[in-house]
Amino acid sequence: MFDNLFPDSIFAKKLSPASERRLRLAHARAEEAIIRTHVENALAFVDTLAEELPFDRAIDSYVRVMGIGEPLAGTIVTRVLVVLGEDLLPARRGGESEDMRPRLRLADASDRSKAPRRA
Asked: Distance of CA 80 to CAs 9, 65, 102, Å?
């Protein structure tokens, strides 16, 4: 009787692998947007309270007031500290580029996964 009212899952059938990948990518983008917004707001919080609190206590207060749990809180605190510390660190030497990470090519990675693997 209650089987129709309380389904086992939202989706009637399992998602295709391609849909599952798109869902995971969308989820990752959403999480990153949430983190970025928290970092911006925490920085504004630090600036607003600069005369009353040191930056580390202001960051801790932001995390506590917003009710952010771990591991998200640790990620936000680290990123806020990185932004605040950029002014304190010396500039990179030797003309290194600012972004040393290689470009991520998701289409190439998925094409490689279809190719047979060689030992």
From this structure: 38, 16, 24
Q: Structural domain boundaries of the chain? A: 17-88
Burial of 86 (0-12, 13-18, 19+ CB in 10 A): exposed
pLDDT in tens, the chain (119 residues): 455 655 556 656 687 888 889 999 999 999 999 999 999 999 999 999 989 999 999 999 999 999 999 999 999 999 999 999 887 776 665 555 555 566 666 665 555 555 555 55
